[in-house]
Protein backbone atom coordinates (compact mmCIF):
# COMPACT_ATOMS: atom_id res chain seq x y z
CA UNK A 1 0.00 0.00 0.00
CA UNK A 2 1.24 3.49 -0.84
CA UNK A 3 0.63 6.56 1.27
CA UNK A 4 1.42 9.73 -0.68
CA UNK A 5 2.63 12.74 1.28
CA UNK A 6 1.68 16.37 0.87
CA UNK A 7 4.43 18.96 1.14
CA UNK A 8 3.21 20.14 4.54
CA UNK A 9 3.59 16.64 5.98
CA UNK A 10 7.07 16.24 4.51
CA UNK A 11 8.19 19.65 5.81
CA UNK A 12 6.80 18.92 9.26
CA UNK A 13 8.54 15.54 9.26
CA UNK A 14 11.91 17.09 8.37
CA UNK A 15 11.99 20.33 10.35
CA UNK A 16 12.44 19.81 14.09
CA UNK A 17 10.94 23.16 15.09
CA UNK A 18 7.77 22.64 13.09
CA UNK A 19 4.49 22.26 15.00
CA UNK A 20 3.43 18.58 15.12
CA UNK A 21 6.96 17.45 14.18
CA UNK A 22 6.96 14.52 16.62
CA UNK A 23 3.40 13.55 15.74
CA UNK A 24 4.18 13.42 12.02
CA UNK A 25 7.45 11.54 12.59
CA UNK A 26 5.65 8.90 14.66
CA UNK A 27 2.80 8.68 12.13
CA UNK A 28 5.13 8.03 9.18
CA UNK A 29 7.26 5.55 11.14
CA UNK A 30 4.12 3.62 12.10
CA UNK A 31 2.83 3.65 8.52
CA UNK A 32 6.08 2.20 7.21
CA UNK A 33 6.92 -0.16 10.09
CA UNK A 34 3.50 -1.34 11.28
CA UNK A 35 1.34 -1.08 8.16
CA UNK A 36 4.07 -1.91 5.64
CA UNK A 37 3.24 1.19 3.61
CA UNK A 38 5.49 2.72 1.02
CA UNK A 39 5.75 6.51 1.13
CA UNK A 40 4.65 7.98 -2.19
CA UNK A 41 6.58 11.06 -3.28
CA UNK A 42 5.86 13.20 -6.32
CA UNK A 43 8.65 15.39 -7.79
CA UNK A 44 6.41 18.46 -7.36
CA UNK A 45 6.21 17.78 -3.59
CA UNK A 46 9.95 17.29 -3.24
CA UNK A 47 10.73 20.52 -5.08
CA UNK A 48 8.19 22.46 -3.04
CA UNK A 49 9.70 20.89 0.09
CA UNK A 50 13.13 22.16 -0.96
CA UNK A 51 11.71 25.65 -1.54
CA UNK A 52 9.99 25.78 1.86
CA UNK A 53 12.72 24.21 4.02
CA UNK A 54 15.39 26.60 2.75
CA UNK A 55 13.29 29.73 3.34
CA UNK A 56 14.62 31.85 6.23
CA UNK A 57 11.27 33.66 6.46
CA UNK A 58 9.55 30.41 7.41
CA UNK A 59 12.14 28.89 9.72
CA UNK A 60 14.51 30.31 12.29
CA UNK A 61 17.06 27.71 11.21
CA UNK A 62 16.25 26.76 7.61
CA UNK A 63 18.19 24.14 5.74
CA UNK A 64 20.96 25.43 3.52
CA UNK A 65 20.42 24.68 -0.16
CA UNK A 66 23.11 21.98 0.03
CA UNK A 67 21.42 20.39 3.05
CA UNK A 68 18.02 20.55 1.39
CA UNK A 69 19.31 19.01 -1.83
CA UNK A 70 20.90 16.20 0.18
CA UNK A 71 17.64 15.51 2.04
CA UNK A 72 15.69 15.42 -1.25
CA UNK A 73 18.23 13.01 -2.79
CA UNK A 74 18.08 10.72 0.25
CA UNK A 75 14.29 10.75 0.26
CA UNK A 76 13.98 10.06 -3.48
CA UNK A 77 16.43 7.14 -3.20
CA UNK A 78 15.07 5.63 0.05
CA UNK A 79 13.87 2.02 -0.15
CA UNK A 80 10.65 2.98 1.68
CA UNK A 81 9.76 5.48 -1.05
CA UNK A 82 7.63 4.87 -4.10
CA UNK A 83 8.60 7.42 -6.74
CA UNK A 84 5.45 8.75 -8.41
CA UNK A 85 6.15 10.02 -11.91
CA UNK A 86 3.93 12.59 -13.56
CA UNK A 87 2.48 11.12 -16.73
CA UNK A 88 1.79 13.29 -19.80
CA UNK A 89 -1.97 12.95 -19.18
CA UNK A 90 -1.60 15.06 -16.02
CA UNK A 91 -1.90 18.37 -17.88
CA UNK A 92 -5.21 17.45 -19.49
CA UNK A 93 -6.57 15.83 -16.33
CA UNK A 94 -5.58 18.84 -14.22
CA UNK A 95 -7.36 21.20 -16.62
CA UNK A 96 -10.39 18.90 -16.64
CA UNK A 97 -10.57 18.85 -12.84
CA UNK A 98 -10.14 22.63 -12.61
CA UNK A 99 -13.06 23.12 -14.98
CA UNK A 100 -15.23 20.31 -13.61
CA UNK A 101 -14.82 21.40 -9.98
CA UNK A 102 -14.84 25.15 -10.65
CA UNK A 103 -11.38 25.70 -9.17
CA UNK A 104 -9.26 28.79 -9.77
CA UNK A 105 -5.58 29.51 -10.22
CA UNK A 106 -4.78 29.28 -6.52
CA UNK A 107 -5.80 25.61 -6.64
CA UNK A 108 -3.65 24.74 -9.66
CA UNK A 109 -0.78 22.95 -7.89
CA UNK A 110 -3.07 21.05 -5.51
CA UNK A 111 -5.14 19.93 -8.48
CA UNK A 112 -2.06 18.82 -10.42
CA UNK A 113 -0.91 16.82 -7.40
CA UNK A 114 -4.33 15.21 -7.03
CA UNK A 115 -4.38 14.36 -10.76
CA UNK A 116 -0.90 12.83 -10.47
CA UNK A 117 -1.99 10.60 -7.60
CA UNK A 118 -5.17 9.62 -9.43
CA UNK A 119 -3.20 8.64 -12.55
CA UNK A 120 -0.85 6.53 -10.42
CA UNK A 121 -3.83 4.83 -8.72
CA UNK A 122 -2.76 6.14 -5.30
CA UNK A 123 -5.76 6.83 -3.10
CA UNK A 124 -4.27 7.37 0.38
CA UNK A 125 -2.92 10.88 0.84
CA UNK A 126 -1.48 12.33 4.05
CA UNK A 127 -1.95 16.06 4.45
CA UNK A 128 -2.28 18.60 7.22
CA UNK A 129 -4.60 20.61 4.95
CA UNK A 130 -7.45 18.16 4.34
CA UNK A 131 -9.78 21.07 3.58
CA UNK A 132 -7.82 21.78 0.37
CA UNK A 133 -8.23 18.23 -0.94
CA UNK A 134 -11.77 17.24 0.11
CA UNK A 135 -13.03 18.29 -3.30
CA UNK A 136 -11.23 15.34 -4.95
CA UNK A 137 -13.47 12.30 -4.44
CA UNK A 138 -10.81 9.81 -5.52
CA UNK A 139 -8.49 10.66 -2.59
CA UNK A 140 -8.72 9.07 0.85
CA UNK A 141 -7.38 11.79 3.12
CA UNK A 142 -5.28 10.82 6.10
CA UNK A 143 -4.39 13.43 8.74
CA UNK A 144 -1.46 12.56 11.01
CA UNK A 145 -2.69 12.66 14.60
Instruction: Give the overall silhouette.
Output: globular
Q: Please summarize the sheet with the most strands.
A: 5 strands, parallel
Relative strand content: 5-15%
Label the structural class.
alpha/beta
Low-confidence stretches: none
Q: Kindly report the average pLDDT value.
A: 95
Classify the helix fraction into a percent range.
40-55%
How many β-strands, per DSSP? 5
CATH fold-level label: Rossmann fold
CATH C-level class: Alpha Beta
Q: Given the structure, what is the number of helices?
A: 7
CATH architecture: 3-Layer(aba) Sandwich
Task: Please indicate the count of domains.
Answer: 1
| Rg from alpha-carbon coordinates | 15 Å
Give the N-terminus to C-terminus distance in angstroms: 20 Å
- Helix and strand succession? EHHEHHEHHEHE
**Strand arrangement across the biggest beta sheet:** 3-2-1-4-5
Question: What are the defining features of this structure?
Answer:
single chain; alpha/beta; Rossmann fold; five-stranded parallel beta sheet; 5 strands; 51% helix; 12% strand; globular
Give the arrangement of secondary structure elements.
Elements: E1 2-5, H1 7-14, H2 21-33, E2 38-41, H3 43-53, H4 65-77, E3 81-83, H5 89-101, H6 108-119, E4 124-126, H7 130-133, E5 140-142
Parallel strand pairs: 1-2, 1-4, 2-3, 4-5
Helix pairs in contact: 1-2, 1-3, 3-4, 5-6
Amino acid sequence: MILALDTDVLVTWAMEGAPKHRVVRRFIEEEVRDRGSQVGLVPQVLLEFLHVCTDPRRFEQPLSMDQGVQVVRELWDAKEVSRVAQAPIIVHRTLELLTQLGLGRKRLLDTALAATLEAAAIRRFATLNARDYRVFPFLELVTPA
